[in-house]
Every structure is written in structure tokens, then in C-alpha cells.
Amino acid sequence: MGLSINDTAPDFEANTTEGPIRFHDWIGDSWAVLFSHPKDFTPVCTTELGYMAKLEPEFARRNVKIIGLSVDATDDHRKWADDIEETQGARPNYPIIGDSDFQVSELYGMLPAGTTGDAKSRTPADNQTVRNVFVIGPDKKVKLILVYPMTTGRNFDEVLRVIDSLQLTAKHRVSTPVNWKQGEDVIISGSVSNDEAKEIFGDWRAPKPYIRIVPQPS
Prior knowledge:
With about 220 residues, this protein is α+β, with helices and mostly antiparallel strands. The chain folds into two domains: about 15-150, 3-Layer(aba) Sandwich (Glutaredoxin), CATH 3.40.30; about 170-215, Antioxidant, Horf6, Chain A, domain2 (Antioxidant, Horf6, Chain A, domain 2, 2-Layer Sandwich), CATH 3.30.1020.10. It has helices at about 25, 45-60, 75-90, 105, 155-170, 195-200; strands at about 15, 20, 30-35, 65-70, 95-100, 130-135, 140-145, 175, 185-190, 205-210, 210-215. The chain is elongated and about 60 Å long. The model has no long low-confidence stretch (mean pLDDT about 95).
């Protein structure tokens, strides 16, 4: 069974390019983004890992840790990092999990349970389902799951946008509308009665009774 939103993210111990970790301890009181790759030295993933290195300060500013995973050993990851730096202009400055035993890929439902064999003998196509993004909250619950095909590079600016929404809506009783960006108007949550809304937000604009629009709370 795959993971669903609000499930507890499975904990695990693993080797990474930054040393061994226990996942929940590594997250601590932060948010986390775990993004996975089917194989080292693959072209689309090379661009993604480089872009995440450039974007890491934006995640850090939001108290979000980032961690990669690829179905190869950490020694291969370190060699791949040389190529990433050379071609993308940035070297991964975050841990990348070595998952040559498929432990994490199986735990997170990205490969079938019982997957065995030598990771080096597997092709990217064998691992094509290992193309996920998981956003995990400080409570260790899964907040977002994205799954991409191998031929389409991921939009990590969108992941930042979603994290802005997740962090805002975790703190305030609001939802964010389509294409919302930081600083734009939001919608009062449906669970908030009009009487409660008056106490919390004051006035609002309502094109329909169920669409109550207010400025983004600070």
C-alpha cells in the first residue's frame, strides 16, 4: 500500500552522503522534503539535484530540510555530485540517501515490497516509479505527495509555493485559492462559522456565501 496524505511518514535508518541518519530524528522540529530518483547519472535528475542545491536557502528560510534519495550507493552519489556541479553550476549541499537495498523505496511504496537484486544491474526504467516528492511536517505526517514520470523535470518552485500554503494554513484557519502566492488573499475555512469569522477576521468579501475572501493573515 502506498502512503496517503496525513499518514505518518515511515521512519528509517539509512546511509547518506552526509553520514548515517535516523529519519525522524533528522527532521527534528523542522519540515522536510524527501525527493527520490530512480538511478544515478540520469539526465533529468541531474538538473533537479542541481536546482535544489541553488534553491536550498529558500527552503532553509522556511525551516524546511531537504533530502534526496537515489537507488544506488552513496559512493555513486558522491561521484554523481561532481557531474551535477560541473553541468548545473551547483553541488548538492544536502544529504542524499543511498538506497541500493531498496529499503526506503519499499517503505514509501515507490517500489514493490520484496524487490531484490543488485541495484547496479537495474536500469532507470526498472525503478521508474521512484520519482516522488514527499513534504513532511514537524509532526512527521505526510502533507503532500507528488509523482512525476522520468521524462518530466519536477517544478520545485511549486513545492515551495505549496509549503508556503501548508505553513500558513497550519497556523491560521484559512485555505488558499488556485495559483495562490505568498501575500495574496485567502479564503476563510469552511469550518469557521460567520460569528467566529467576525471575531477572527472582521470583515470579508463574499461573492458567494461559501467563498469568504480576506487578506492573508500575518
